[in-house]
Amino acid sequence: MSNIDRQTLLSDAAPMAGSQFQQFQSMDIENQQAESQPSILKQSSHPVALIFHFLFRIAALVVYLLANFFTTSFVLTFVVAVLLLSFDFWTVKNVTGRLLVGLRWWNEVTEDGTNVWVFENRDQTRVINGVDSRLFWYSLYITPVMWFFLALIAIIRFNFQWLLIVAVAVALSGANLIGYMKCDKDAKQKWSGLAANALGSNSGILGMLGGNLIGRIFSRG
C-alpha cells in the first residue's frame, strides 16, 4: 500500500475515532449525572413515612385489579381490600400527614350530636420538605380519581358487586382529601391572621415612635 493510501485511511479514521470518543464521553457524563442525582427516598425527610403513605393504597389497588387471578371468592377479596383501605385511611390521617406536611385533622361529635372539624397545624418555624409535600398532595388528589375511573369500568362491565369496594375506597380517600384541604385552608388563615397582627402591631409601634419624634421636633420649634 502506498503512502498516499495510508494517509487517506488515517485521515478518514481520525474523525470517526474522535466522534466515538465524544459519544463515549457524553454517555459517561450522563451516567455520572444520573448517579449523582439522589433518589426520591434520599430527598425525603421521612422516607419510611413516605413508603407507608403509598404502600396500603397501592396494595388495595393491586388486590382489586388482580384478585381474580388468585381466588374466585369475592368475600375474601372484599375483606382484604377493605382492610388495606382502612389501614391507608388511618395511616394517612394520623401519621403521614403529620410527618410529611405538618397537618392533622379529626372529627369530634359534641354533646348535642353535631360534628365538629378539628385541625392541627405545624409550627411556622418548621420547614416542609418539597418532595414530601408534592407526593403527599398528588397522591391525595389522584387516588379518588383512579377509584372513580375503576367505578365507571365496573358499571360498564355490569360488575356491580365490585362497586362495594370502590364505594369504600372513594369514601375513605375522599374523606382524607376533604379533611386535609380544610386543614390546609385553616392553617393558611391562621398564618395570614398572625402575619396581619404582627404587621399591625409593628406599624402601631412605628406610628407611636414617629408621632413622638414629630411632636418633639415641633415642640422644640
Rg over CA atoms, rounded to whole Å, is 31 Å
- Secondary structure class reads mainly alpha
Q: Provide the succession of SSEs.
A: HHHHEEHH
Most strands sheet: 2 strands, antiparallel
How many angstroms separate the termini?
108 Å
Strand content: 5-15%
Shape: globular
Question: What topology does this entry show?
Answer:
Elements: H1 3-36, H2 40-43, H3 47-66, H4 74-100, E1 103-109, E2 115-121, H5 130-156, H6 163-220
Antiparallel strand pairs: 1-2
Helix pairs in contact: 3-4, 3-5, 4-6, 5-6
Pfam families: DUF846
Main location: Golgi
Subcellular location: Golgi apparatus membrane; Membrane
Task: Explain briefly what this protein structure is.
It is found in: Golgi apparatus membrane; Membrane. It is a multi-pass membrane protein. Helices cover 77% and strands 6% of the residues.
Q: How would you describe this structure to a colleague?
A:
It holds the Pfam family DUF846. It comes from Basidiobolus ranarum. The protein is built from six helices and two strands; from the N terminus they run H-H-H-H-E-E-H-H. It is mainly alpha-helical. It has helices at 3-36, 40-43, 47-66, 74-100, 130-156, 163-220, and strands at residues 103-109, 115-121. 17% of the residues are buried. The model is unreliable at 213-221 (pLDDT under 50). It starts with a helix and ends with a helix. Strands 1-2 form a two-stranded antiparallel sheet. Helices cover 77% and strands 6% of the residues.
